[in-house]
Predict the structure.
Amino acid sequence: MTGHVLLSVEGVAVDLPTPRGNLRAVDRVDLKVGAGQTLGIVGESGCGKTMLSRAILQLLPKKAKLSGRVMFDGQDLLTLDGERLRKLRGRSLAVVFQDPMTSLNPVLTIGTQLIETLREHLELDGLLAKKRSVELLAAVGIPAPEQRLMQYPHQLSGGMRQRVAIAIALSCEPKLLIADEPTTALDVTIQAQILDLLAREQRRRHMAMILITHDLGVVAGRTDEVAVMYAGRVVERAPTPALFKNMRMPYTEAMLAAIPKIDAAPHTPLPAISGRPPDPTRPIQGCSFSPRCRYATGRCHQDKPLLIQAEKLDHQYACFHPIKAAAGVSA
């Protein structure tokens, strides 16, 4: 990665106590995000994407045990007290959650929520905060923004609510925006609009962004780098063009094959990844993907592969039988 590293996640692990035993939600993850860059984090539900984002934001459940280091703009977030974290979140580090109905306060108007954010973090007076709120709503494509300020979240559509959540997240010009499945709760026709809005604002503001999704198609063309997660670990990481041109991890290949093809014949069955993700409270001995992998051999069931460099230094994968090797080409 070239340029200034804004966020550095170093050996981060998250453990959660459950009635069935310890649950390792995030397993020693290392990531870097440069200033102005967009990182896509992709994986199935339950692979640890959201828990990793909450570890970065320091919004983990009370009983969660966090280890490792999270460096943001020169500060170790794990050492900051609650007050300093509260000032950092929203001002320099912002988040857009997947369901705006849970992130917006249902009993406060849109204007109140925007204005309170601006007054708290930027110390604007009431008139300036209201003027800035109208500008923010207009910037994210909400018509009649002055009228919307007086409305409550339930009076807006799902797409409009998510645009409001984005406006609130962008209100203080953050250095890093984490978008956690920002289109999951929306209609298909609205999803592309929201993703394009985020990409446009990221470029315009030159802020860094982490885009979390279960869909490889979402990160194509919208991110600079992709990290693929499975069972709490990063199993492949590469610049976005390199990943799609020469993916090495069988799990990444299987996820790409599961994306619907626009030129497929009607009623064509979608390829599915067989089996199910492993129980995180019952970690298996070898590669976590080995029970579902068509390339797996005896070694895969016995040993856990480490994240290693491919031929290019910026492409890493955790697999004993990367796709090229399985096809007969030396890995």
Observations:
- The CA atoms of residues 23 and 281 lie 5 Å apart.
- Residues 325-331 have pLDDT under 50 and may be disordered.
- The first strand starts at residue 5 and ends at 18.
- The chain is about 35% helix and 25% strand.
